[in-house]
Specification:
With 386 residues, the protein is of the alpha/beta class. Helices cover 39% and strands 21% of the residues. It folds into three domains: 5-76, Orthogonal Bundle (Arc Repressor Mutant, subunit A); 80-194 and 361-375, ATPase, nucleotide binding domain (Nucleotidyltransferase, domain 5, 2-Layer Sandwich), CATH 3.30.420; 203-357, Nucleotidyltransferase, domain 5 (2-Layer Sandwich), CATH 3.30.420.40. A hairpin with a 2-residue loop joins strand 12 (216-222) and strand 13 (225-226). Helix 1 crosses helix 2 (28-35) and helix 2 crosses helix 3. It is globular and about 75 Å long. The chain binds zinc ion (ZN).
């Protein structure tokens, strides 16, 4: 069998870089120990990474033996480049410019308007140009990738289904690629939140991240890899049936979970029952004033969501389920309320927690995707970076 020396060198370089990123400050000897490569190979690879300005020397650490030579520590040069990231909601756009460790350099959020195929390119172009003014010209690589979170299904970098905006009718990555000469990636929003947890907050190998916004979607990490299913349609738990013959859903079915307990569904129900605006701040004011309709809506939302959570646990047996929802973040009682309905023996060992990354989980996941692609590494562990 022919062994491709270039491939082996590339794999070894990826392994070394993964360890340097994971440990933040590490010596060549420690890298050799963790990768099982010999010291000469590690020295050669780190010299090349320093040459590429991806790794820098940080000075001397403590010696292993008393009186021994102090090792030189190395670290990842996060400022070698930037990522640009978008969370494209149906009525908002949020964005971040980050260094190569995902830390934010600049953020933007515009809301209360409809995102559609007619205005999306103009909006994204303006925001990108705005972020570009915050990049240092001296950065080695500049922008290494733009990743856009889509609230819908993404298949081969194209949007194949979106229930709440019409962006499936344009080639968004292709059009943006003509304007900006960098890799443009589209990915499902819930998938990005799962990638974010697996990169920045958790070393668990079995993770589900449940996003509850206009719709409900789950990003699923199995054996430390994103599980996308055929054509990117895995994790569409929002379209699992809650009530047969229930409310009509844009997916073509009836009684889907997200027609009852997505943020959009809950706020619309609140508006229909009270005549008030379908707005989260208005809802929160009523809830905090113990208005009975708002209280009843939250009790019902928790119950319905617990059915979706139970189904996810039974299907995927995760170690942890991370929740991403503005309503749940604002109402601390929601988590115990959902958990109180999880009485099955299957549910007992699963942790149910709010995402520590908060409203920015999607943007962090988008950054992680661009960074991984640019560095050509499989495992990106930045749990100690932020
Ligand atoms: Zn549906």
């Amino acid at each position: 069998m022919l062994v491709d020396k270039y491939m082996i060198r590339k794999q070894n370089e990826s392994m070394v870089l993964e360890q340097i990123i994971k440990h933040q400050r590490i010596s060549r000897a420690e890298v050799a120990k963790k990768t099982h490569l010999n010291k000469a190979t590690v020295s050669e690879i780190t010299a090349s990474l320093i040459d590429k300005e991806l790794v820098e020397e940080l000075g001397e650490g403590n010696s292993a033996k008393k009186g021994g030579r102090k090792p030189v520590l190395m670290g990842f040069n996060k400022q070698a480049g930037y990522t640009l990231n978008f969370d494209l909601g149906y009525n908002y756009v949020s964005s971040s410019l980050t260094y190569l460790d995902g830390s934010f350099v600049d953020t933007r959020k515009i809301k209360n308007f409809s995102v559609n195929r007619g205005n999306v390119l103009k909006i994204l172009t303006e925001i990108i140009n705005d972020h570009l003014t915050k990049c240092q010209d001296s950065s080695t690589y500049g922008i290494v990738g733009i990743t856009i979170a889509i609230h819908g299904i993404v298949e081969e970098n194209r949007i194949s289904f979106t229930p709440y905006y019409d962006l499936d009718q344009i080639d968004l990555a292709g059009e943006l690629g003509k304007l900006f000469n960098v890799p443009i990636m589209l990915e499902n929003e819930a998938n990005l939140t799962a990638i974010a947890e697996a990169t920045f907050s958790s070393r668990d190998f079995e993770i589900v991240s449940l996003s509850i916004y206009s719709g409900i979607g789950a990003g699923i990490i199995m054996n430390n890899q994103l599980h996308k299913g055929k054509a990117g349609k895995s994790g569409e738990v929002g379209h699992s049936t809650l009530f047969p013959k229930g409310r009509t859903c844009p997916c073509g079915n009836q009684g889907c979970l997200e027609q009852y307990c997505s943020e959009k569904a809950v706020l619309e129900e609140f508006s229909n029952k009270t005549g008030l605006e379908a707005d989260l701040d208005v809802f929160m004011t009523e809830y905090q004033n113990q208005q009975p309709i708002a209280l009843a809506i939250i009790a019902e939302m928790a119950f319905h969501l617990s059915i979706g959570v139970n189904n996810l646990i039974c299907h995927f047996s995760p170690e942890t389920i991370f929740l991403n929802s503005a309503i749940i973040r604002k109402i601390p009682d929601m988590l115990p309320l959902i958990a109180s309905h999880l009485t099955s023996s299957f549910n007992q060992d699963v942790e149910l927690v709010n995402s520590a990354l908060g409203a920015n989980a999607t943007l962090y996941g988008a950054a992680a995707l661009s960074i991984r692609q640019f560095l050509e590494i499989k495992s990106l562990d930045l749990t100690e970076a932020l």
